[in-house]
Amino acid sequence: RYGQHVACSDISLQVKPGEIVVILGANGAGKSTLLKAMAGISEGHVEGSITLSGRNILGADANDIVDLGLALVPENRGIFANLSVIENLRLGAYTDRARKRETANLALVHGLFPKLVERENQMVRTMSGGERQMVAIGRAIMSAPSILLLDEPSLGLSPLLSKEQLG
Description:
By secondary structure, this protein is mainly alpha-helical. It is 38% helix and 7% strand. It contains eight helices and four strands; from the N terminus they run H-E-E-H-E-H-H-H-H-H-E-H. The longest helix has 14 residues, at 129-142. The N and C termini lie far apart (33 Å).
């Protein structure tokens, strides 16, 4: 909730390994608020419990939540525009568990988004919205998540690229 405004309530969901869960709703329905609460970056007041791998993560620091295996690509992407593509991607592998899989995850990102290979030394601020979205998703993958949350994953992507890369 944000002050007296309840953004979302009575939500219960369970995600099993390998499942894809989609949260649909109108603008303002609380989708982004739910994802931010799960990732530990909600600006509002969060009640209840959020369990990841048997541990209640409600109130945990966002960096600890990432280390436990949950990564969020926020709607605003949260990338570092003044860094290169490869610097942004490597920042995603900052936790101990992610560093152990950095090489494999970088290969995965390059397989999903081959354009990032040719652009790895390019400053992100000079890229299109769709290319920046690829960097944001790639950086989240670099954290070796067991759960990947994507808020508006096709934002900034052309319809053709959305179908090709994210579909």
